[in-house]
Amino acid sequence: MTTLQEPLVQTAGVVEHERKAPGGFYKWITSVDHKVIGKNYMYTALTFMFIAGAMALLIRTQLFNPDGHVVSLQTYNELFTIHGSMMLYLFAGPFAFGGFANFIIPLQIGAPDMAFPRLNNLSYWLYLLGGVTMLFGFFTASGAAAFGWVAYAPLSSAPYSPGPGPDLWIVSIALVGFSGIFTAVNLVTTIFYLRAPGMTMFRMPLFSWSMLVTGILILIAFPVLTAALVLLYADRHYGAHFFSVAGGGVPVMWQNLFWFFGHPEVYILALPFFGIISELIPVFSRKPIFGYKGMVFATLAIAGLSTGVWAHHMFTTGTVLLPFFSALSLLIAVPTGIKVFTWIATMWGGQIRFNTSMLFAVGFIFAFVMGGITGVMLASPPIDFYTHDTYFVVAHFHQVLIGTTIFAGFAGIYYWYPKLTGRFLHEGLGKWNFWVTFIGFWITFMPQYLLGLRGMPRRIAIYSPTDGFTFLNRMSTVGSYMMGIGMFLFLLNFIISWRRPRPAGDNPWDGFTLEWATSSPPPAHNFHSLPAIRSARPTWDMNHPEHADAVPAVTGGDESAQ
Amino acid sequence: MRNESRVYLGIGSFFVLILVIYFVWSRESTGSVLLLASAGLGLLPGLYIGWWSRRMQQRPEDVDEVAPRDITGVVGQFPENTIFPFTLGVGAWLVGLAFVFGLWFAIIGLGFVFGAAIGATLESKRASLSERENRV
């Protein structure tokens, strides 16, 4: 145990007690430091992203030609199932609330660590082991799960999906779900109880606000999924009939349960990345955020609304209340619109620095608005009836999710990489990374909208040459390879910074929030001293007292001198 | 603490609102139960934190202007490196695999889980006794 004193008063605050710290591999396994765990999460999530991305390229290669023969039909089903599951459960969520949040939140609110460091470590191991379990399916005789990432009943029942693959999928998601719940408990507790003195709720950086709301959403959504998985497992093995009509069950109940998790999940994936964008757009525009409180309330409104719209994925089942879910889904565009407006208004008239991070942030706004607008279209039942389960929907959610997790996520990586490692990523290569990915992104997904409108259903492995889908599919495949090259450039950038480090200094971007007030990488338990917190931009106030937007400080920041 | 409870209460009351509208309008059971549970999840912690916030003094992180006397003292005790979360994680994982590959996995897994529980308890006890203020 380490007892921590308040760092403002006692500069050498950490009272280490005499025990020899372990080193090397054992240290990595046993570390309860939020920074080590956060990095572990990020590297693991990115690894899963590369694996799932490779699956996406295989899928696109199969669809390059009509009647493609790259993989068998069964393998194709397994590929899109595990691609979706890995991207959603193992990459996008954990990357944000396990990786970024773990590393950044305690630094941003001036805490020495997460509230429950050992629980934090446990949730990483559950995530890693659970995630790997999902891949085990490929090594079983009957293959991995092949029912799509949504696992609709009755396709996911024992007769239609036999073998250990689906069970491994269920166990994997359950373990990762528990890991998410633990992380959420940790995040909410940390934000509520470990803020630095003077860091009131309405001075918290917007990323911390986003993560608080994400944590609450996780606590609402993930238990529902875990419960649904238990029911599904009981159906498959113990002869229960929750989701089978034969025994008096209701298959649509699975959809209700799943999407009650699934739709908040979409915002669990999106909100952290909104937070990242809200952090770095003000920094690179050299302006405070436009409408801080508006952003906070928009985040809370998204949290509320996102839980009330689950059945808009089920319009075509004919068992849902169309006007209710349509209205709420359309309403969600309002807080999201507030956010987009705020980002643009923040940039308006600012001294914008277009480095890689900012490029990714602006690219995110484009991609997200495109995905968001098609989302508004899909929220109206007549259009949804026409486009449901076509490539239109595929293009829509890929634009939203890649827009948030890849573009905003990479903006965050380029922004916080100096804080993580004390090094820069290469700017020139980073710009290449952005442009190749960005152009590839549009070439991949714009044709898919058209394919969807022409009636190409999703989750099909082959199409006929006479369907007229060939050209657009080829375009989409070429685009996806471009995105693959873009990702490879990122990997290259990463390796270059690892082999030839370029030191970044503690505060390379002249940042606003507390994480830039400590060294890079931060010391054990984060802070040797904290600046006085008088506004939402404490580090800015400390470094630029002439421009400080805080209430003027009587003593010039050092309160212990009073 | 007032604002912390308002975050939960705000989200919770929104669920109550849409629960009422949804239930009256659709009479559908699954969604109504889920919304009810969500409303409870929002209101329960919100009311609890709100209840506490009336009974405790304002914390230094809740006030705009921090007085120097508010920022001295102990932040908390933080653990050092420990193997037991890893042990517990492996145990939970093996118990999970038992649902796929057979019961014998669970026997090994539970061994890890109980080992981790005992080990972590002893470790915590040892660590807290090593702190000066916890010594009797």
UniProtKB/TrEMBL annotation, chain A:
Bilayer-spanning residue ranges: 41-59, 79-105, 125-149, 169-194, 206-234, 266-284, 296-315, 321-346, 358-379, 391-417, 429-450, 478-496
The answer to whether the entry has keyword Transcription regulation is no
Where does it localize?
Answer: Cell membrane; Membrane
- Print the keywords alphabetically: Cell membrane, Copper, Electron transport, Heme, Iron, Membrane, Metal-binding, Respiratory chain, Translocase, Transmembrane, Transmembrane helix, Transport
Q: Quote the Pfam families the UniProt record gives.
A: COX1
Q: What does this protein do?
A: Cytochrome c oxidase is the component of the respiratory chain that catalyzes the reduction of oxygen to water. Subunits 1-3 form the functional core of the enzyme complex. CO I is the catalytic subunit of the enzyme. Electrons originating in cytochrome c are transferred via the copper A center of subunit 2 and heme A of subunit 1 to the bimetallic center formed by heme A3 and copper B.
What this protein is called in its record is Cytochrome c oxidase subunit 1
